[in-house]
Design a protein that fits this description.
alpha/beta, 219 residues, Spore Coat Polysaccharide Biosynthesis Protein SpsA, Chain A, 11 strands, 7 helices, two-stranded antiparallel sheet, globular
C-alpha cells in the first residue's frame, strides 16, 4: 500500500535493519529470544507508534514468520557490504512505497531499549531537507539510528560500490547532519545506555538482567 502525503507529514516510515550475518551471536539475532520474545518483536513494539509504517531489511530467506504482517526486503547491493547497504535498501523501498516521504528512519534489530521518542526527536532536529539526523548518547554517535534523506540513494549506492572502507560515520560526516543527544535510562540499579546493542550471548545475558528494569520505566 502506497502512503499519501498527509500520512507521511507527521511521521516518517521506518526500516529495521536485520540484514547482517550475526556472526558473533552464532545465530540470527532477529530471532534470538529476550524475555521469551524474539528480539525483532521487541524492536517492532517500540518502533510501531513512532512511524507511519514499518518494514524489515533482511537477507534471510526464511525465519521472519513471527513478524507477520510486516513486509521485508533484501539488500539491493549483494555481498553483505555492511549496514549502509541496508540503509540504501531502506531509501529505495521508501521511494517506492512512500513517495511523499522525504526521509526514512532506520534502527537495528539488536538494540531493544532505544527511546520511545527517537524518531520524533530526530525529525525535530532537521532544519534542512538534505540533513541526516543521527542519535547519540554519552558522547557516542549511533550511526544506524538515523533519519536519512531518501534523495541520497544514488550517492550512497555509488559510495558503497567505490569506497574501500565503507565506514558509516564517514558517510554521515561528509553530509549536512544534526546530532541528537539522548540521556541515559535511570534505573533502580544505575544508568543504562538506551542504545545498548546485543552482539554476543554475553550481551544477551546482560539484556535479560536489564529487561525488568526497562519495563518498570516503561510503565
Amino acid at each position: 500500500m502506497i502512503a499519501s502525503a498527509s500520512q507521511t507529514a507527521a511521521r516518517p516510515p521506518a526500516v529495521i535493519l536485520a540484514g547482517g550475518r550475526s556472526s558473533r551471536m552464532g545465530s540470527d539475532k532477529a530471532a534470538v529470544a529476550l524475555g521469551g520474545m524474539p528480539l525483532l518483536l521487541h524492536v517492532i513494539e517500540r518502533l510501531t507508534p513512532q512511524a507511519v509504517g514499518i518494514s524489515i531489511n533482511s537477507n534471510a530467506a526464511t525465519g521472519l514468520d513471527f513478524a507477520s504482517g510486516i513486509g521485508f526486503f533484501a539488500d539491493t547491493v549483494p555481498g553483505y557490504v555492511g549496514p549502509m547497504a541496508g540503509v540504501l535498501s531502506a531509501m529505495r523501498h521508501t521511494a517506492r512505497q512512500f513517495p511523499a516521504a522525504s526521509h526514512v528512519a532506520t534502527v537495528p534489530t539488536d538494540t531493544p531499549f532505544f527511546p520511545h521518542d527517537l524518531i520524533a526527536r530526530l525529525q525535530g532536529a532537521i532544519t534542512l531537507p538534505t540533513q541526516i539526523a543521527v542519535a547519540c548518547s554519552a558522547k557516542v554517535m549511533h550511526p544506524v539510528f538515523a533519519l536519512w534523506p531518501v534523495d541520497l540513494a544514488g550517492e550512497l549506492e555509488c559510495w558503497l560500490l567505490t569506497d574501500e572502507k565503507r565506514r558509516v560515520r564517514s558517510f554521515i560526516e561528509s553530509h549536512a547532519m544534526a546530532k541528537v543527544d539522548f540521556p541515559m535510562l535511570e534505573t533502580a540499579t544505575g544508568p543504562i545506555d538506551p542504545f545498548f546493542n546485543i552482539n554476543t550471548p554475553a550481551d544477551l545475558e546482560t539484556a535479560e538482567r536489564w529487561l525488568p528494569l526497562i519495563e518498570d520505566l516503561d510503565r
